[in-house]
Specification:
Blueprint: H1 2-9, H2 13-35, E1 39-41, E2 50-52, H3 65-85, H4 95-121, H5 151-159, H6 162-189, H7 197-224
Antiparallel strand pairs: 1-2
Helix pairs in contact: 3-4, 3-6, 5-6, 6-7
């Protein structure tokens, strides 16, 4: 460092100014370059990768109509599960059931928020149009997704207390979860559906999580009986 100072002092004033300006320009350019993201596009098998401009932005891929229908329907499906868990505190003192209900309420509320964001990001409504719901009536007088409780079942659940509530809740939520598994299977069976990475990851998580909770609730129900 002292050597560099001696060298720069020996330069004429104009040359020194030019030297300092050049050094500053190099420093700024290097800093800016260091801050620019490097975007690499993997090549096809046997092909080289490409470095894309830093201004490159992601573009959402086209999604299947079945993906949209699934997300809209599952929002409705999850919403009923959250409504069911909201009945727990006033109707039972079963601590294990309360913990289960809190977990289901939190996880499904989070998933509802995710599905709404996914739909909004793609310019889609978060609720189904009425004409899309035609044919979902399971003889209960209301439009239901697979596994959803009928109005009669929900009314019975609201009237129940204690052990009767515990049994109705567990049986109803098992039915509800099994319906969600049906919805996931229907989506996977549909041509061109669940190709979106987020949809595939989400539905896989739903399938895994609901199966695990079904097993837990089946054990709890057997213990009550």
């Amino acid at each position: 460092m002292p050597v560099q100072l001696i060298q720069t002092r020996s330069l004429p004033f104009a040359a020194l100014r030019l030297f300092l300006a050049l050094a500053f320009t190099i420093f700024v350019s290097a800093s800016v370059f260091a801050q620019q993201p490097i975007i690499v596009q993997p090549g096809a098998p046997g092909q080289p990768t490409k470095v894309l401009p830093s201004t490159t932005s992601a573009v959402l891929l086209p999604v299947s109509a079945k993906d949209i229908e699934f997300m809209q329907g599952m929002i409705m499906h999850h919403a009923q599960a959250v409504d069911m868990t909201a009945l727990i505190d006033a109707r039972t003192d079963n601590k294990e059931l309360r913990l289960l209900g809190a977990r289901i309420s939190q996880s499904q509320s989070d998933e509802i928020n995710f599905m709404r964001r996914w739909l909004v990001a793609r310019g889609q409504p978060t609720e189904m149009e009425m004409e899309e719901m035609v044919g979902m009536d399971h003889g209960s007088g209301s439009h239901l997704m697979p596994g959803m409780l009928s109005r009669k079942q929900m009314a019975e659940l609201r009237r129940a207390k204690g052990r009767d509530f515990d049994k109705l809740f567990l049986a109803g939520m098992i039915q509800h979860h099994e319906g969600a598994l049906v919805m996931v299977k229907q989506l996977f069976d549909a041509a061109g559906a669940a190709q979106d990475t987020e949809v595939y990851g989400f539905t896989t998580d739903v399938d895994t999580g609901q199966r695990a909770e079904i097993r837990i609730m089946q054990i709890m129900l057997e213990q009550i009986k």
